[in-house]
Amino acid sequence: MDLQMNMPNKPRAVGIAVVVFLAFTIVAGGFVTVGPGQRGVLMTWGAVQAGVLDPGLHLKIPFAQSVAKMDVQVQNSQAAETAASLDLQDVTTTVATNWHILPPDAEWVYQRIGNEAALVEKIIKPAISNSVKAVTARYNAEDLITHRDQVRGEIEAQITSELKPYRLVVDSVNITDFHFSTQYAQAIEQKQVAQQRAQQAQYELQQAKVVAEQKIVEAHAQAEAQKLLQETITPEIIQQQAVAKWDGHLPEVLGSSGVMPFLGNLGAAKLER
């Protein structure tokens, strides 16, 4: 008998549980939270409503309304594009573009383009590709490196211009890499080596010129000193220097009478007397 009494209670409990679940679902479905850095796009039966939902908690009609969340923070798209330079060299340029959706226009972007993934594929990547190719064609391959910052600025300006109609803001564009064909890269390296050798040869030539000029100056100084010495030394000065250096001893010579002082002309004159 207890079993018969419990049987009607089980379906009732199940029914209560179902009602509670549906009530919770309806209540929960009446709220939506838009996170920081996001904007909500409200749709009623799939039709986009005007305006955007700011970050925070919002009410909506369960089942009838839904909210698409759009990221309005700065996002990064990186792409490598191969294009021909002005001198017809293939150059692969890797560009990193930082961009974001204008927050008040999140509804406009979603309605006409879609979410962020669709935005990147349909708008961002084509704009980057077109801009890189257009700017690369204005420069010789080598100038792309030597004028890197100028090239980056032109690419950024063109991407900005192409994305503006889609309510997108370009925060910055950076060139992370230039890649050339193997043959052209080798040609650039050989040219740099040749320039370095030419600079080294020029330096050595300048050094040799300086050394030669120094030798000429030294030789001229020595010649001037020798000339001055010849002009200032007289026989009297030579005799005075000889007397100053004499130690008081006459040189000795070997004669028939043995060793005797050498008197020179003066001694010979005395002997004649």
TrEMBL record:
Coiled coil (UniProt feature): 184-211
Gene3D superfamilies membership: Band 7 domain
Stretches assigned to the Band domain: 29-192
GO cellular component terms attached to this protein's record: membrane
InterPro entries membership: Band_7 (IPR001107), Band_7/SPFH_dom_sf (IPR036013), Prohibitin (IPR000163)
Main subcellular location: membrane
Keyword hit for Coiled coil: yes
Topology class, membrane: Single-pass membrane protein
Subcellular location: Membrane
Protein name as annotated: Prohibitin family protein
Lineage: Bacteria, Pseudomonadati, Pseudomonadota, Betaproteobacteria, Burkholderiales
